[in-house]
Design a protein that fits this description.
The structure is a homodimer.
Chain A lengths: L10 H9 L24 H4 L1 H22 L6 E5 L4 H7 L6 H15 L2 E5 L16 E2 L1 H5 L2 E2 L3 E6 L2 E4 L1 H6 L3 H4 L5 E2 L13 E5 L1 H9 L16 E4 L4 E3 L2 H4 L12 E2 L13 E5 L6 E4 H6 L2 E9 L5 H5 L14 E10 H7 L11 E9 L5 E7 H5 L6 E6 L2 E2 L9 E3 L12 E7 L6 H4 L28 E6 L5 E3 L4 E9 L6 E7 L7 E2 L1 E4 L13 E8 L7 E4 L4 E14 L24 E8 L2
Parallel strand pairs in A: 3-8, 5-7, 12-21, 23-31
Antiparallel strand pairs in A: 1-2, 4-5, 5-6, 6-8, 9-10, 10-11, 12-13, 14-15, 15-18, 16-17, 16-21, 18-19, 18-20, 22-24, 24-28, 25-26, 25-30, 27-28, 29-30, 30-31
Chain lengths: ~600, ~600
């Protein structure tokens, strides 16, 4: 059995990991420069980073479970203090390859444990990756000859050589780790706590080679608008300031939220090829020009991240995921070829037996060539009114790199995760995409399901999103002046599945009085079920500066007058938002669509 | 200005109305036999009941406004006590033509005023319908010559003759009352309070004629299963006991809730004809056999009344409508011809310009030949996956009369009000149905909209219904035994628009712990968007018989242990139910889909 996480990070160990130049540096240390930034990519496989990256997601999930277990096992542990200042905590974490992921994990642990992450006193982590003179020495060549069960499966971590054959057999996710067989799981191996499997030492020269072959896969990211606020930089994930959203019905491309799962690929449009498989035995290849020859179809569609407004849900209880505000959503016009037309051209028929899903793969991939992937139902893909397109334009211009240049699927009405960017491949299938993001992420769960009990096979992948809305102006915590006793509130509302927003209700008195907002921007002349675009609204609502809302701080004689404003939207199915996050809480913090509530300070004009 | 309702029912007046043999009888009186049950229908128009019925709905809405006003104007009123026992109250109300409607109004008033309906002291209601010797005498012939603005508009009530020209001009709904012009508004005139317009007397013989020509339009209703609990008998509206619903995935036809708006028509299948208009200039006629020649299409679909669970919402604040429990919903197999096939046969094409709606009219109509009517979008009607059918079978048998024999539209995923029974006519159109039920009923509103501010043009007609669920067993208020500390809870869940139920969560501790219910009956192998049938579920949930839940009544040493169980469903769009009724309350009590909550008494086994 692997040891839980808390055995992995005692203070004394952190120094040794800093030495290996990868993930963690000792508290108070300046992050070290990476050993060799410019080294070429090709020898990465020799170093085995390949496998490390491939196994990352499994480890990630495993970690989540361990995090939950932390609290219940405090009796035999030492205390390790994380910096309470988030800036310091970020410095403390090295900036290497998967910095953002590790940062997220540690942030999570920090939230979960109130800043105290614990380390077991019974572990002997100093030995991890260290030379064990009692064990034999191997070269990378030796190790690479142990890559299957028959020869035993070896991997390296720092100077340690580990036999993980049993681990692979014992763990449901073990097969993925096989991708690292015969190589190194550096730098993530430490997270798996497999020191009991130690079987030898790696020669010092080979360790240098491993470390020398690391380079930053995020070195070629595009420039971004400075107003975008990143929730993670590598991969880049960012949202614009909330009030920007209500400035215009169409969100400017450079201010549209960015959700990247991996580094942004560099694609040459001249050589770009889209592969379509699964219709009969033939593989079809389309160049960018081929795609542009199909009738150009333009839609206005909102794309929203499944985790939009996660930050609000996480206030109830921590969740795992990027800490999105309410601006991980945007509305744009998208032009491209209908997916239906492309698929018809490859010979797919309506209601073709055995075909139930259309899978997409992106050109964004990890060093193991595992691409971002997702799928939608064939009904959505083929629906003549479904408006799924392979977009090559956003707001009339070629896509920005961050938004999928040169081709992005736009699946309107559906969670953004299925609108695969940098589209490389379409697979017509009887199965959903087997990708992590379809199978083990982007699903909803009962509020009582935690990382110990979660079973991702039990929930359907999110496709259509539920109705939501947000107040964009004023923002939470701001000070506002009333005009004639009224407060002007503006926001957006949207619902998945092409549902129209039929009403937005706003209250400033906890629901005693609801005011119907004016829908100031909504696509007109749209047939039922094709309302892909959001609705912008405003409400000029009377605010009672009543005594109940006045907090007089006696000592400083400061009079503060806070008002909490709530908004809820109703769509054409008359579905509405749940009132609070408590009963829709889920461990991934997705589908966070409870009433949006902002508290503002009313100042005297 | 018309006087509000409270002027209309002082005790002294009720006797005079009882004399007229129609609506109300004096408290404690046995309801009188109708004066002449067997009289032929044709002379109804002479009596002017025609217009009375046509104007009913306008009056009804007007009444709603007045009801709301009751509370604020108590200072100048007398008190009129209604019987507190509902059985007695029902007796007290006569059973004549629109008894159920009047009953509903009085029930409403009763709820709203806590059993005290008020009457103005300043009114002189004794004079309504009475002879005024100072005014001239007219015959019915005289009155019928005053039927337009130019000649003044006259109507009668009992022996009074009223000039309503000004009333018609002053009221937005006045044009409808014109249908009664030149006749009598008996017996609903009293509700309009137009005594200030009195202009003469009707001869005594003519009054006899008016009364003689009334017969019970509900005389030929079908026999019903005794287990159905009526919320109104005329028209018949009833639901089965809630636990019946979870006995079987398919609800037996005779236990399926009945929602009739008008008397059940008697239809001879041999002469039945369906008319289809609006596709080009031709009218198409289909016999029952013609319809059966189209491919027979069978679907399993749940039909739910828009007012299902209204009773729960009305506990927050009274609403207008039948007091439905949670069983105004049922699930059946329906077989018939696809509406799409019928429409294609008449020449309608997909995306035909100018066509946006498909209207339906039933054979059920009032004496003014105003039929029940509704419409759906042409997209739903023509969608090859929309499964809208003209059903002639329910659960493998010909439809019961209460369910639309011989032909009922079944529009799966859509509010029951659009599944028009006793289908007489289909109109392909660029407009929605102009019927009351499409335009001025079955719409949702903001909780702060009341009958003074409501504008029915501002809300869309309900089509797809939001996600809902209910606990059917145990029922609210029952006593249950635990088994191994667990309580078995069963219920249904459903969502409109073909959304699948993906999860039902149940809690017995106010949401601290949610349990995922087992979905025990759900249609398998259904493609996305076509989950028309409900899902039955059960949850065996641990119930803590904790001290906080034990109420010890000290004096009688009775130990009662109440537990409140909540259920909420989540559909495939991950929409879920709102928590409570407070913020979804609407004046019509529709869309009542908040968490279902039942309180049960845990008894020791």
């Amino acid at each position: 059995m692997p040891l839980p996480l808390f055995r992995l990070m005692p203070p004394s160990t952190l120094g040794s990991y800093a030495m290996s130049g990868c993930l963690l540096t000792r508290h108070n240390h300046t992050p070290p420069r990476p050993p060799n930034r410019g080294t070429v990519k090709r020898s990465l496989q020799v170093a085995g980073l390949v496998g490390a990256l491939a196994a990352t997601w499994r480890m990630y999930r495993y970690l989540q479970v361990q995090m939950i277990k932390l609290q219940s096992r405090k009796k035999d542990i030492q205390i390790l203090q994380f910096p309470t200042d988030p800036v310091r905590r970020n410095e403390w974490i090295s900036y290497y390859t998967f910095r953002s992921m590790i940062k997220e994990i540690i942030d999570y642990a920090f939230e979960y444990t109130g800043g105290v992450v614990t380390a077991s006193s019974e572990s002997s982590p100093d030995s991890w990756g260290q030379v064990r003179p009692d064990l034999p020495w191997y070269t990378l060549a030796d190790i690479s000859s142990h890559s299957c069960k028959e020869n035993r499966i070896w991997v390296t971590f720092s100077q340690g050589v580990y036999d993980i054959t049993e681990f692979v057999e014992q763990h449901p996710g073990g097969e993925k780790i096989l991708m690292a067989a015969g190589g190194s799981l550096e730098p993530f191996w430490l997270l798996y706590a497999l020191h009991s499997y130690v079987s030898g030492n790696l020669s010092a020269e080979d360790v240098s080679e491993v470390m020398a072959n690391m380079e930053d896969p995020y070195a070629c990211e595009p420039r971004r608008h400075p107003a975008l606020k990143p929730s993670s930089k590598k991969p880049f994930n960012a949202e614009p300031p909330l009030p920007v959203l209500v400035d215009s019905f169409i969100t400017p491309a450079e201010l549209f939220y960015v959700r990247n799962h991996l580094p942004v690929p560099e694609v040459d449009p001249a050589t770009y090829e889209l592969e379509v498989d699964g219709v009969g035995s033939e593989t079809f290849i389309f160049s960018l020009d081929d795609i542009k020859k199909f009738p150009k179809h333009t839609i206005t569609a909102t794309i929203q991240c499944a985790g939009n407004r996660r930050g609000e849900m996480s206030k109830v209880k921590p969740v795992k995921g990027l800490n999105w505000g309410a601006a991980a959503i945007g509305n744009a016009t998208w032009s491209g070829a209908r997916l239906r037309d492309i698929l018809l051209a490859t010979g797919l028929r309506d209601n073709q037996p055995g075909v139930t899903h259309v899978q997409f793969e992106g050109l964004d991939s990890d060093p193991a060539n595992v691409s971002y992937g997702a799928s939608i139902s064939v009904e959505k893909a083929m629906d003549p009114c479904g408006d799924t397109i392979l977009a090559y334009e956003m707001n009339g211009n070629p896509l920005l790199r961050d938004h999928g240049f040169p081709i992005r699927v736009v699946v309107p009405g559906i969670v953004g995760a299925r609108s695969v960017k940098w589209l490389a491949r379409i697979i017509v299938s009887g199965e959903e995409s087997c990708s992590h993001w379809q199978q083990n992420d982007y699903k909803g769960f009962c509020p009582s399901v935690d990382w110990n009990t979660v079973d991702f096979t039990k929930s359907p992948a999110i496709q259509e999103l539920p109705v939501t809305s947000a107040i964009c102006d004023p923002i939470d915590g701001s000070s506002v002046e009333l005009h004639d006793g009224n407060l002007m509130v503006k926001g957006y509302a949207w619902s998945g599945g092409g549902q129209k927003i039929v009403r937005v209700d706003v209250t400033a008195d906890g629901g005693d009085t609801w005011h119907v907002a004016e829908l100031i921007a909504q696509e007109g002349n749209i047939r039922p079920g094709r309302h892909w675009a959001w609705t912008l609204w405003r409400a000029d609502i009377p605010v009672l500066a009543g005594s109940s809302q006045v907090l007089i701080l006696l000592l400083v004689f400061v009079c503060e007058n806070y008002v909490e404003v709530w908004a809820k939207a109703i769509d054409s199915s008359y579905n509405t938002q749940p009132e609070s996050f408590r009963n829709i809480w889920n461990l991934r913090g997705v589908l966070s669509n409870a009433y949006h509530r902002v508290k503002v300070n009313i100042v005297q004009s």
